[in-house]
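ESCALATION

Customer reports they have been waiting on this structure for their group meeting. Please prioritize. Original submission:
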Amino acid sequence: MSPRLIAHSSNDTGETHSLADHLRAVADRASCYAFSESMQGAAHWAGIWHDLGKVKIEFQEKLLNESRKCVPHKYEGAFYAYQSGWHDVAFAIAGHHGGLPSKADLNPAMRMNGQDASRLVDRLLSEIDVRCFTRGDHSHLPLHPTTALDLHIRMLFSCLIDADFLDTERHFDVERKGDIRAETNYPDISQLKERFFLNHAEFLTTKAKEFGLEPSLFDLRNKVFDASCRAGESASSQFSLTVPTGGGKTRAALVFALTHAVAHNKKRIIVALPFTSILDQMADEYREIFGVEAFLEHYTGAGSYVESAEGTESIEETRRRLAAENWDAPIILTTTVQLFDSLFANSTSACRKLHNIAGSIIILDEVQTLPVGFLDPICDVLKQLTESYGVTLLLSSATQPALDSIKSAYRLTPTPIIDKPERLYQKLRRVRYEVEISEPWSWERVAEEMMANEQAMTIVNTRADSLKLFECLNERGGSALYLSTYLCGAHRRKVIEKIKTLLKEGRPCRLVTTQIVEAGVDIDFPLVLRAVGPLDRIVQAAGRCNREGRLGERGGRMIVFQPAEGRMPRGVFETGAGAFVSIFRRNAFDPDDPKTFPDYFSELYILQGSKGLDAKKIQELRDQRVLNFPEVAAKFSIIEDDWKESVVVGYGDQSADERVRQVQEKSAREPRRIFSALQPYTAELYQHQVEKARRNGLVVELDGILCWMGKYDSLVGIARIEQNPESHIL
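Update from on-call: job pushed to the front of the queue and completed.
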């Protein structure tokens, strides 16, 4: 009698994992994860056949001997599926170790010896009572559009690998991961809705007192809230929420999502934002509303770092990490980068969560920040998610983009939640705009304007410009403060605290900064100057002006100026600035009319050209005739590869290398823990700046971590590297 086939070697209790048990368990889980009945069959077969290659004698010997010998096993099951006409299943199986392959790579791999595969199938069928494939059943495959097969395979792949990982984890790590997953009982959506409405009743009581002198604003926010609640009952799958700053957009989006989820049996709510600073604020509010156990924060630096006495991972940290692997939580807070990089990835780790996106509500907050160069593939995937995977989409913004004006195949046509939003914009008007672009302003002119006002902030387009203006202002005795990513995060928080204190006490406060404050930084100046840029950036800057509406009818003052010597990021940013100038010169700029923003974005898309909305030709690679998953993953990167690198700086009482050594010792050299502990002490440099600093001895690498070894200025951090690197040498 042949020995029993096994799927995994012995665990800590000495037990091996039966291959038949593993295949049945993976098949059951995978078919449960499939969103539609039509995909359940494919997911079941993917689970049954994914480890067919482990039937090979050499693989069984490897497992029994616990050998580290490399014995590939992913192609036997893929071949059997492919030969049986289940090509989507073949992709998923071939990718379950190493990631989804391209069609060009898969096809040659499917030319193995059919007799060998048949022998493996016969051997497996002697231990497991299942049927073979029913040949040629393609009824589950999407027919249109040509990119639909790409998303279908990704979803099938996700079902398989999450099921495989969880069953393997159950065998090897039941004492920790398995038990923690089993003990994690999330509240259901209806319970979260009840918690929200209880909290909102208290919130209204508090705000009623706070807004006692301004009942119109209080009433206005209530109307936005009520409209969103009513819209949640609707069965539509695409919505837009257009509300100006201060209109209660965050709670309105939440009540819509909770109402819609309960009314239409949605599994979870995914909230995606472009800025971690806003996510931090939102996470604080969610903790107060729902409690810490009800939602997952999945973004860099999320959550408090919980360290046990032994320096090992705490149970709470393990619970968050496990939930982040597959988004198995009722509410997910994440970044747009995390969401879309996962939807276009091909790796097992990134794709594992995709099946949990199906049947969910996705809130894209600050949706105007979606990268223009990837709009075609992003909108195509969003449209398919709403049409074929039970997703409801909410596009939320004060400056709504024109996603209904792009190529018809990818066009989104959301239902507006707010009827006639222009009335909201008029009632929440808090800023007077002065656009001074006919005659460029020198830095001296900008400094003079700031000196004439005790509280003023200027936002420029580059860090180099910010340093020039900062020094120009201080030469005039301006005693300015400075913010940019040349300061580490801990330093920036100190500066922001100081700014808030000065503003609150009515003391002089002049700030020179970059775009870093335009979203998520809660500061309120009576005067804001903004170098000309894209319209949405200008409106975001205005959100830091008379933010609390304390200046009465005269409002805050917002000056948009054209810098005489300023620089500007190239690409879409520069095109956006041009689009703003264009609509201003034809008298179409009215920031208090929400129709301005779709007009602006339509012009921006025209200036980019039809190919500019898919700058890296992602859609061609996703076409069912190509299906190049690795190339799509390589090209789809919202954060460009040549962007910036983080360097640990010597802020506070420790040099950079001393801090790195100390953190390494405390963190048991575990990379993720080291990164989390060092992140508040990192500043950013472009790659070319890093290379130059290396040559000058200002940056060294310690165990893969870049350390800034030069001076760290108490006002501008490492900003002066732009002018004279040698001055940094200690």
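Sent to customer with the following note: The first strand starts at residue 6 and ends at 8.
Escalation resolved.
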